[in-house]
Amino acid sequence: MKLPVKMTINGQSQSHEVEPRLLLVHYIREVIGLTGTHVGCDTSQCGACTIEMNGQAVKACNLFAVQADGATIMTIEGLAKDGELHPIQQGFWEKHGLQCGFCTPGMILAAKQLLERYPKPTEQQIRHQLEGNLCRCTGYHNIVKAIEWAAEHMAAK
Amino acid sequence: MATASVYGQPIKRREDPRFITGRGRYVDDIKLTGMTYAAFVRSPHAHARIRGIDSAGAKAHPGVVAVFTGKDMTGVNSLPCGWDLRKDKNIPGVVQDLIMPPHMPLSSDAARHVGDPVAVVIADSQAAALDGAEKVVVDWEPLPAVTGTERASQPGQALVHASVPGNAAFKWEIGDRAAADAAFKSAAVVSKKRIVNQRLVANAMEPRACAARFDEATGELTLWVTSQNPHVHRLLMAAFVLGIPEHKMRVIAPDVGGGFGSKIFVYNEEVVIAWAAHQVKRPVRWTATRREAYLTDAQGRDHVTDAEIALSRDGKILGLRVKTTANLGAYLSTFAPAVPTFLYGTLLNGVYTIGAIHCEVTGVFTNTTPVDAYRGAGRPEAAYVVERMVEAGAAALKMDVADLRRRNFIPKFSGAFQTLVAVSYDSGDYGAAFDKLLQIFDYRKFRAEQAEARKHGRLLGVGFSAYIEACSIAPSKVVGALGAGAGLYESGVVRVHPTGKVSVFTGSHSHGQGHETTFAQLVAGELGIAMDDVDIIHGDTGAVAFGMGTYGSRSASVGGTAILMSLNKVKEKGKKIAAHLLEAAPADIEFTGGQFSVKGVPGKSIGFAQVALTAYVPHNYPEGLEPGLDETSFYDPSNFCFPFGAHACVVEVEPETGRVTILRYVAVDDVGNVINPMIVDGMVHGGIAQGVGQALWEGARYDEESGQLVTGSMMDYAMPKADQLPLYETARTVTPTPVNPLGIKGAGETGTIASTPAVVNAVVDALSGMGVDHIEAMPLSPERVWKTIQAAKAGR
What we know:
The complex is a heterodimer.
Chain A: E1 3-9, E2 12-18, H1 24-32, E3 50-53, E4 56-59, E5 72-74, H2 87-94, H3 104-117, H4 123-129, H5 141-156
Parallel strand pairs in A: 1-5
Antiparallel strand pairs in A: 1-2, 3-4, 3-5
Chain B: H1 16-20, E1 36-42, E2 48-54, H2 56-59, E3 64-69, E4 94-96, E5 110-111, E6 117-123, H3 126-134, E7 137-142, E8 168-175, H4 177-186, E9 189-200, E10 209-215, E11 220-225, H5 230-242, E12 249-252, H6 268-280, E13 284-287, H7 290-296, E14 300-311, E15 317-329, E16 356-365, H8 379-397, H9 401-408, E17 413-418, E18 424-428, H10 430-441, H11 443-455, E19 459-468, H12 476-481, E20 490-496, E21 502-506, H13 515-527, E22 534-537, H14 555-582, E23 589-592, E24 595-598, E25 605-607, H15 608-616, E26 630-635, E27 644-653, E28 660-670, H16 677-696, E29 729-732, H17 750-766, H18 782-793
Parallel strand pairs in B: 1-13, 11-12, 15-16, 21-22, 28-29
Antiparallel strand pairs in B: 1-6, 2-5, 2-7, 3-6, 4-8, 8-16, 9-14, 10-11, 10-13, 14-15, 17-18, 19-27, 20-21, 20-26, 23-24, 24-25, 27-28
């Protein structure tokens, strides 16, 4: 049995028939072909699959594709506008906030929500808000610095 | 040495734009025409005989293309173990020869750990493959299992392999037993401790994955795989396992999401997928779920050690005796026997002058996931023993831990310091790193604060770790004599194009280390050209002639030196071409800042690009010189390199709950020369976090009764999170190695090696006021620390 789903992903409308058990993250990766959203675990701990759905950072492994019917979604591929990096992306680059890059798309989208909640976050606020995103490479030090950089530059804009 | 401005600078990484925009290309991102998907049927038992496998239901499931069991894989050999320990090969220290039981890609006789694969289902979709796998019926006969490290070799335990009596895979020793025994007899103070170095899971954020395609037209098999060393994968799989010609196999390791050792090895699934792609005549892809990663990625550490330190009254270390049992899991992973032997025992000299050392190691099989190299691999275990015992010794002598260390540091040297455990250090100034640490940390001030805090019931503690590690792996002759089945050199090709742009091919592989930036800095600096004119190519046996990959902090020191050798060849040939064009003798040509010039003749020079063009358009060209500017080098180091340093960690222990909070972390590392300090600092940060993770939270635990991995998911295995870790203060001393011309020692593992003992020593220090001088096992979870406090209060 397949069900129809429609949603807007990175400004493009998408319409497919999918199995109800298909996870949203697999829909994005395998059906749409946007592979920047990653799968790092199967228990919703790692946050590598974090996307923005209807303005909220969500873990795309925690939803079925059919639950996103009608939603407006942004993945990492949709964050830079007209070839210009978002300040968070720039911050991760400037401050060496990534090594292997696998957790990075999820980290960046989690950071986006974090900065919407706390435009001038303290170090502890950044760390607390990133509890749902795991990184094995950086020890988080430079991720914190990257988000602080982004906060400063977003405030200046 | 390079003098251009890019070398040694914290230049932003060139690989980052693709990662921060979601355009990285990992194995699971690959889609091939006609691709099928695989799901594995795995043992739910720690140990069970396979009476039979019925795959009829799976084969009939819609979308299923094929089902294979071990019996179908005729002609496919055991996964190889690339390190032997045998007396008849004159490998030093072997007490009992290593027994190598077969490790078949799909086991047909029995399963020996939970997750051991016994069948694979290949289907048109991932969902159909998973459905099919559920319909494979295995007739299991559960058998008694053994998981515990100490228990494995006790009488009456289940045997993992019938061919291995007492589950003892090998016995090995290093050092001088008689001298150590004599040292202990003469000692004023002896401290003896049990040290359990628990099992860890690497947890690279990208789960393992592979995809294979067999091309009927060319007979070429292509394997995309999450590998740290694609050429090693190709060699082992083609020559040893699949028995196919090496030149007909191409292995591509594209973007790889972290390795930490776990992606060095050849795994069952990779062999099965490569083989199956040929069978079903369609591409096949498999990606591990995280649960599969916990059950099948080679795990790390897992030692139980009894250690003794002997000291004189004035704090001289007279002797160290170490007896370790190392859990190898159910099968021998690719380099498993090297980790608890030559990567462990050889580091027990630490940074100290020690009177005598003896160490014996027994490797045991258990019904658990195989154990192999995990970031540091043997060296963290050694550093943990040494640094824990030094502090235990200081406690026994009632001597300050910094003072004791300073009384025993090996004095500054360069060239060679022969240890008591085979290896010879390259260069070191261990006291200088430690002194710098004390200065940054302000040790005296902390002790005053600590005393004041104790008056108010607050438990603060500081822990030190003065570590050394062996990296720049490795001199082939040396490791060959110690049992390695391979050489450990590296290749570097510098291909200058006619326009003066440069492609560099390295056999090392980046899975987070930043090769595309670091090596471009090296090349741009040496050739005096822009980094944008340099491309770094790695991770594809179809592009890179040969290589040994990335592990053991070897990429810059070994891989970088191979590139440097090729750069020198390019310069030498360039000088001949330039000399011809400038009508001078080659000996009179110097090359600086991208210009070939005649010494002492201002204005008489020619640019690198012009020389490159001439090499490919050799109309006006030196007689007898080959056209082209494309040089290959293989660098085999003459010795290991030995980075060192000193770390300090400050913790506060909450007495009511046992909760440990890190208040400060200071690291002083000496990794020799540094190409990109930003990248080195980043690696140190990540390494510290992993070592802190071991000290405080992480641990793979098997249920002794059932053999189940009870920490088999990210819900159960405590991965360090952002809000548990501090900012790290990093600093360096610089003692270049004389081993390679770059003077680089290696930086990938230092943090992991140093931080675990620093944190544990800090917690012990915090509790020292109540008489605690040791905590036997990690992680120092609130429960364990609380129990330690209760036991201390009760006077136990």
